Amino acid sequence: MTASALADERLDALLTTVLAQVRGDDPRSNELLSALIRHLHAFVREARPTQEEWLTALDFLVRTGHTCNEHRNEFILLADMLGLTSAVDDVNFVATADATPSSVEGPFHSPAPARANGAWISTGPERARAQVMVVRGRVTDTDGHPLAGATVDVWQADDAGRYDSQDPAQELGNLRGLFTTGDGGVYWFRSVVPSSYPVPADGPAGELLRAMGRHPMRPAHIHYRVEAAGFRPFTTHVFDAGDPYLDSDAAFAVKPELVVDPVQDQDAAHAMKFDVPSPFADFVFDVRLVRQEVSA
Ligand SMILES: [Fe+2]
Q: Which of 32, 68, 151, 158 has the greatest CB tally within 10 Å of its CB?
């Protein structure tokens, strides 16, 4: 028997022994831990790390923990960069052909000021320099019936890719808004076109990106949280079709249905109707919510 085959035989026996020790009181916890153990052992069997490589991996996790603080969760970033946050989102979304797909929330949500439909969410210095955008759409059920009274919570970065919490030049609440849909399920607001931005790459997650030869950029987007009575709470974000990073989002959150191609509207009459300078970007995004299942 070769040394490799002998090692595999020992690995089989070892895995069986370890799995037999998983016998807690909570069946779901046992299921999760058993799956985790099986996959980690499969990784060792496939990749056959050296002792030095294994200690490097453990040190990486220790440093990831040390990078976390009240304002930064490096483990979430790591999960984003490995596509795991999107994978968890995918397995939890109730997929129906007519529903708008969900997507990851990201780390920048905070309570938004309530604003009336049509309000500007851009109240900072970016409004004087960035391209103006009208964002509008309807919230409906999956059959297209409008949902009046739904809340639409939006947040976005500015034209330099910065959120209010990252930029001393912006007041908290800038580029955020909490809207309530009116008749016809309609919401709308005025803003500026956001920019793509890099995720923090100065910690272990950044090391990982560089080791893989990847960039840290996320394509420009607007985040949405939408809620309506009787429907599943919904989180997604919507991307600009013209962004150069659309095919290589560092967080793997892009889905085809979430890409919007804003119309560059040159019509001065339209600009007057929305009370914005001409030309402006007209960004239309409808949300179709899934009805909440009522348990018997
Ligand atoms: Fe974001």
A: 158
